[in-house]
What does this fold into?
Amino acid sequence: MHKGFWSLLTTPIIGLAPMDGVTDAAFRYITDTYGKPDILFTEFTSVEGITRGADTLLQAFIHHTTDTPTVAQIFGTTPEAFYKVAFILAEMGFDGIDINMGCPDRNVAKQGGGAALILKPVLAQEIIRKTMQGALDWAEGRNITQIDLPPRIIAFVETYKKQYNLDTTERKILPVSVKTRIGYDKIVTTEWISTLLETEVANISLHGRTLKQLYTGEASWAEIAKAAEVVRKTNTIILGNGDIKSLSEAKEKIQTYHTHGALIGRAAFGNPWIFKDITPDPHTKLETALEHCRVFERMTPDLHFLSLRKHMAWYCKGFEHAQIIRSQLMTTKTYDDVEKVIKHAQQILAENNMIASPDY
It folds into this structure.
């Protein structure tokens, strides 16, 4: 087993969960800057799409320089594609590779990826081992140009390395981890986790729902505890995930259900401070929202600005007039629009000496 950075983390480990359409470069930067979780994950990205030449997908792998371990999450069903993408992630300077075997999206599942891999344990194991082999072969000197990748993908990676001054002459094996669920249409926690452990993955992050549940009902931390009991007989690390609303709750669940740590997901929306158990004032929230926009434009200028609207709305909670400010931000189309709304809102809040209060 190669654990890489995972072996250097101290418990309890509390990280930012990977979330599709949310944990892009700017979101991770802001969360890292103001919350400093123990680990960061990217959005999940299709290995088949990348190996077919869709270089736009590589936008998901843009990341800032930080001492916080940053892991790229990928999904798909083709073992050879996972092998090739492992080279790309190593070249782009990630600390680890995470395989999504938990996404409940129907389109992903229909193609056999995400949580649907729970129904295909043999394929799931092959994917993990192929990813590990790719990470190993890259570390031992095989070149990204030797694995039959589309020229535009290679060009993107080379350009990215120059832009961020990445030196990959000193090669290291990236550890491979898996994020998954407790079952597909029924709970199979023990059997499924045991299957994953046969591959000696460095980490398993377990969401306490089946695919069938999506995000309804309550996450079963009792099932996560069952998995933890099995995992703790090995050298693999297990993190629990599901319905955590605060840092104190995360620590409580880790202690109660005997995991090595936990991932916080939706509770971090517009709230990077959750990882430090801080409640900022309205001015700070709005100033951070504006910074979020600046970082987005700097790091990912090719992405659609309108994807920021949901983030802006998330920052506007917990203080007077937040609902009005949210409504205004949801009509913005540019950074200048956002700046005008936020600066005007801050002026009104300052004039009225507003402090944190219930959302109106």
Notes: Strands lie at 13-16, 40-46, 70-75, 96-101, 176-183, 203-210, 237-241, 261-264. Residues 121-139 form the longest helix (19 residues).
